[in-house]
TrEMBL record:
Positions of region (Disordered): 73-93
One Pfam entry name: IU_nuc_hydro
Any one Gene Ontology BP term: purine nucleoside catabolic process
Protein name per Swiss-Prot or TrEMBL: Purine nucleosidase
Entry GO terms, CC: cytosol
GO MF annotations, alphabetized: purine nucleosidase activity
Domain of life, source organism: Bacteria
Enzyme Commission code(s) on record: 3.2.2.1
InterPro entries named in the record: Inosine/uridine_hydrolase_dom, IUNH, Ribo_hydro-like
Length: 312
């Protein structure tokens, strides 16, 4: 069984990514760390706690950075709603975050299990950059480092930049400059994972999970994310967790990725060079998703989550 530590900013698609990880018999979630991103840190931390209680997860939650390294905070509340989970209303959490800051939790958790944990970041990369600055050896201690972020052809926050990178380009530059090889699950891949009507028909038997979280999340997301009629909204963050579960679901290509931090129109762009010297490659860049197998994996995990909700 693989271990995963998820750094997140819940967020509708974060909620589904966490469900995918929790529902898989092949993953052990060792913790969640929150960061300001889709909405402010107060909401992302509360959402992480609420989701773990709703799903019946007994994992630590650690609160992280509330703002980028040097820039003013930005959010995506127009996509995820004012509290981050669209129209979903979950009970207030009974648990509280750990006293330990997310950066310390990441360092301590990786140090305790070197080579065992897939560190997976599905929000802005501020916590990860701060952890690298404090303890560069985390780049050696991870089993792998996977992000949902970036793109080699497009943006969704600006024409050039994906939101998670654009929210803190300086942090992203630190992360891509570290000694690990980042697995970049970017927009070019995640837009292939669309929750179409056909996909959603798989979820009809999921009871409270569907009624209280899946359907309202996807309904809200579908109304806030522009897409062609019939395509359905892309479920970005779950793709990063899916890679951890089964890398064969996603084709990756080695490349050099640098983050633009100064461009007037291109700040946050992940400048990707597939053709450069192999010795300079610092990333595996996702290009193609095995869609049927991806949705099979997601559906199986969601079925497990639905059948094991507290009170179900």
């Amino acid at each position: 069984m693989k271990k995963i530590l998820i750094d997140c900013d819940p967020g509708i698609d974060d909620a589904l990514a966490i469900a995918l990880a929790h529902g898989s018999p092949d993953l052990e979630v060792v913790g969640l760390t929150s960061v300001g991103g889709n909405v402010g840190l107060e909401h992302t931390t509360t959402n992480a706690l609420c989701l773990t209680e709703f799903y019946g997860m007994t994992v630590p939650v650690a609160r992280g950075a509330d703002r980028p390294l040097i820039r003013d905070p930005r959010d995506a509340s127009e996509v995820h709603g004012p509290n981050g989970l669209g129209n979903v209303v979950l009970p207030a959490p009974e648990r509280t975050p750990r006293n330990e800051h997310a950066v310390e939790f990441i360092i301590d958790t990786l140090a305790a299990s070197p080579g065992e944990i897939s560190l997976t970041a599905v929000g802005p990369l501020t916590n990860i950059a701060l952890a690298l600055r404090r303890e560069p050896r985390i780049a050696e201690w991870v089993r792998e480092f996977v992000i949902m972020g970036g793109s080699y052809t497009r943006g969704n926050n600006t024409p050039a930049a994906e939101f998670n990178i654009a929210a803190d380009p300086e942090a992203a530059a630190v992360v891509f400059g570290a000694s690990w090889r980042t697995v970049m699950i970017g927009l070019d891949l995640t837009v292939q994972a669309r929750a179409t009507a056909s996909v959603r028909s798989r979820f009809t038997e999921f009871g409270r999970f569907k009624q209280e979280l899946l359907s309202p999340c996807l309904d809200f997301y579908g109304g806030s994310v522009p897409y062609r009629a019939g395509d359905g909204p892309p479920i970005h963050d779950a793709c990063a967790v899916a890679y951890v579960l089964d890398p064969s679901l996603i084709t990756t290509v080695p490349a050099r990725v640098d983050v633009e931090t100064h461009g007037r129109f291109t700040s946050g762009m992940t400048v990707t060079d597939f053709a450069g010297e192999p010795a300079l490659h610092n990333a595996l860049v996702a290009t193609e998703l095995r869609q049927d197998a991806f949705w099979d994996l997601l559906t199986d995990s969601f079925r497990t989550v639905a059948s094991s909700l507290p009170g179900a």
